[in-house]
Known about the structure:
The protein is mostly beta strands. The chain has a 14-stranded parallel sheet, with no helix packed on it. Strands 6-7-9-12-15-18-21-24-27-30-33-36-39 form a 13-stranded mixed sheet, with no helix packed on it. Mean pLDDT is 81; it is low at 1-40, 58-76 and 91-104. The longest helix is centred in the first third of the chain and has 6 residues, at 98-103.
Amino acid sequence: MPITYENTITVITNGISEDAFSVGGDTGYIEVVSVATNDFMYKFEEGENGRLNYSVTANNCTFKDFIEGTMAEDNDPKTLSLTKDMVYEDKDDNCADSGEVTQSNSELTVNLNGNTLKAADGVSNMTLAVANEKTLNINGGSSAGIKGKVDDKMTLDIAEGGALNIDGNIELDSMIKNAGDISVSGTADIDGNITNDGTVITSGTTDFNGDVVSDGIISISGMTNIDGNIVNDGTISTSGTTNINGNITNNSDGEITFAGTINVNNSLTGDGSYINNGTMNVSDAGKLAMTSDDGLTNTGDLNLGGGTLNVDVAGSGNLNVNGAVTSNSDIENKVAITDAGTLTNNGNITGDITNDGTFVNNGQLD
């Protein structure tokens, strides 16, 4: 016979009332109830002969600082909302880590609400793992004044087939290892290093402040600042506005395709494929330092503010000279020299030339 119950049960730890919580559901009966306090995990269930059975286990790990929400070992999506920083410890073998908690649900959403997901004092690094066919959603905060954070002693490890969705206003100081799918939206400051063998898709406003090593797919849109260094052996595509302040090395197996507006303030290097279909603004032409035989394929607008161009420019796009530029390269693009521009050609230009500034030809015009 089911047990009837009152609306709440109060847990007493060392003579102190730790927590009061509702049990059961709408039926008026206890089925199975699990509740975490700061110290223990309590599990209540109906036993034989109408008895109320309960068990107590130490709760000194992942959710030591408790949060509102439910951890249930089923396949239903669950949402947890932090009311303070979530401290992640691992004191003994019986302590479930965040990876295990994530894996007990098909989908878990953690709302940081401006709080921090962090490792405990004295712990050098802890891993939050997302397994195959599991999804972890992290929402930092709902407004610019509420920013959640994952600290630099955490590692987010997404397995092949796993998914991590990051939204809201958030600062990620953690290292990220990805073999699955990552989606970043909202406003995200990514300060940790990323190793990517899967797919990373960003939108909104994203700052990459750490270094990125990628053998997978990275698709960037919205407003993006790349302040760290990127080494690419996979595929990178951009749209929206992208500010490149770090160095990008595109290796022979890599392909980078730019669209939207691209502001190049540091070097583009490597012998992989570079394609510009958007508007690329380069203050110093020497920052275009790719070493492939194809150089840069430009089907959009390439705006040079000055410097020396030593890479070939292929394609049907436009090359606009807005400052003092020296070219030692083969240029297939149409060339336009503005009234503020000076072009000294030591290479070969096969495209049409429109000159409203100064043009000095020491090379070939085909």
